[in-house]
Amino acid sequence: MQVSTKFSDGFTFSGPAPERMNGRLAMVSFVAALAVELSKGQDVFAQLSNGGIPLFLGTSILLSVASLIPLLKGVTVESKSKGLMTSDAEVWNGRLAMLGLVALAFTEYVTGGTLV
């Protein structure tokens, strides 16, 4: 299935790029935040203040470009969905990761320490 390959069409409010890219970034960020917390004992805010912002920006750029390449070639995510790895599952996992990351940061802020 082909979609519009115009850059501006991909980034409209209901376009294919915004939620997928944010969801993918949230999934990577949530897992990375928990991994660093478990290995180094740093909460999310400490991770950001100890050099995490350049790493976050670099990861954001890399995931954005990797997500845009197929989109700009006209390939839909739905056309690549198979078995458990469906486009709907990716959207829901991304949404849950967004909520999880916010909940993690909020809980750590309120408690004043790491979650794990």
From TrEMBL:
Keywords annotated in UniProt: Chloroplast, Membrane, Plastid, Thylakoid, Transmembrane, Transmembrane helix
Transmembrane stretches, start-end: 51-72, 92-110
ATP-binding keyword on record: no
Location (main, coarse): membrane
Localization of this protein: Membrane; Plastid, Chloroplast
Keyword Transmembrane: yes
Annotated GO CC locations: chloroplast; membrane
Membrane topology, record value: Multi-pass membrane protein
Stated family: Belongs to the ELIP/psbS family.
Entry protein name: Putative chlorophyll A-B binding protein
